[in-house]
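Lay summary. Proteins are chains of building blocks that fold into shapes, and those shapes determine what they do. In this project we predict the shape from the chain. Here is one chain we studied, written as its sequence of building blocks.
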Amino acid sequence: MQWIIGLLFGLGCATLAASPLDGWLLPGEDVRRVGVLPPGIVCAATRTASGDAEILSWRLTNEGQAAARIDEAAFGVCFPFDCVLAGPRHADKRCAIWHVWCGGELAWLYARRPNGAAPYLCVNLVSGSVGSYSIDCDATLAATGAHYRGSPVLHFPPLTLAPGAATSLVFRAETTAKRPDRDVMDFPRAAVVEVSPRSPFVGEPVTVAVKTAAGERRETKVFDRPGERIVPVEANGRRTFVRVNVLRDLRDILVTRARFIIDRQQCRKAGDPAEGAYVIYDRATGAQVCEPNVNDHNAARERLGMGCVVAMAARLSSVPEFRASLTRHRAFVEREIFDVRTGEVFNNVGRDNRWNRRYNYPWMAAYWIEWYRLSGETDCLRHAVRTMDFYYRINGASQESHGSFLPELAELCDKAGLADEARRTRGHLLAQADNILGRAGKSVSGEVALTGAMPAMRIVFLAQAYLQSGEPKYLVAARRDVPQLEAYLARQPDCRSGLQNPRYWDGYWFGKSRLYGDTMPQWCGAVVGEAGHWLAKASGEQHFAELARENLRGQLAAFFPDGFASCAGFTFKTARYRQGVGPFKPFMAPGLYPGERWDDWANDQDWSLYYAVRYL
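And here is the predicted shape, written in a compact code that computers can read:
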């Protein structure tokens, strides 16, 4: 099945001198209809000015003799945002970071520049219903999928048009300092729906708020069983909904997941280099997966998160098998991927460090911290400090990594009488923060161009440095990065996407599906929750604590009742990759790929559970 790309507007449409969409779309492109209309269906499109806004309208009429089904393959409206995050167009004044909410009769698109500055582009649905979105992507526009998200395509909910019947979608596009996820816009029947918390624990009250020009209405709900819920909402005469995920007790999630890891994800092959390691699990086949020649599928790197989770579960529960499994895992770590004398962390089994990947070091230090908190072995603290010493010797301060435990490590060293180790660790934190100050709001990575995790990680280190030193310059810099952080977030009334950092390449690198496309939640987005936690501590402002709560609880959607956890949850309906005329080799084979599913691999996602246990 293929999509046919059509022109947006037919003859006779009004010509506008300037459009709010100007400067937000890919050069040379415009909003367009995609899909293959069923026989008998006719589409009429119009575009008109309304003050400083534009009204964009599509009307489908069945002029045939038989009923016709309209689904995502038949019709969609594509907004080709310039969201290329590499090269000259990732500058603050060009690139569009977009967000979407498909809430039925209340739906919107919303885009910001990477620097977070207003005005924003808002595309609000004013008539009709949007049930889902897809991704349309020219895979030649960037070297990797991490550099280009693709364009959102908005769809009707599936519907059937009888002969003579018609339906329409009407949008209002404008640039404004208002946001559709927060502010009531200036058109008839405008409304904002909010829900808090999006991911409540069983029995915790949930507030659903509807805001209109006339005021605000609130309703409280309580759920007595875990699981995802769709809650219908009426908002200013428009039918919409909120999606919440009712959570089990956090300790139960932790213990259930740890049990799954030790039962199904620990390699038990005597003589194999991966013996004792925690590896990928494929729920479709029931088999373990360990591919030493594929970095993101080997027994090292991100998979250390499983070790941290099992160590936490061993400490917080009375299950003796956890400690026994973890001891076996530690033997693997010390034999294959860590040098206890130097603190060097290896990228693969066999002490293979042909790629001395800096990201691996903070994860290893976190592992040894959890071992110390479980066992009280002072050598584990020394391993953690030695790891971070090595990391900073290889210029770890030049990039942000998930190393937010430095204050905890220093404090543990103090309590254990390791004064010199505590001093070095505090020195590393200030050196990291000073390096960030010198980069003036920019990050560097050898693996991605620009992501929402980057400002979040800068904020974490800056807030921690302020708390340690009391020097205002660190808090000032952390606050200065908040607009960049917020550019990657929207407040959808949805447990999967609300206040979650859009990621769209991890399903390809870490998943069985090998699929680029929106993945929410994704564990790297948990650093947003970290940033909120530390900003709340540093500033005393509780709205940052709310950000931490909403983000980290939302991450827990990836953890299933049986203990399986998915590395990728695809939120789009379909993703169409095509080979255009861009300068790069396509990073995804042309074709149409299904979404709205969880990947079958449990791989790297356990870091989000680790952060949730630390900060919730």
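What the prediction tells us: The mean pLDDT is 94.
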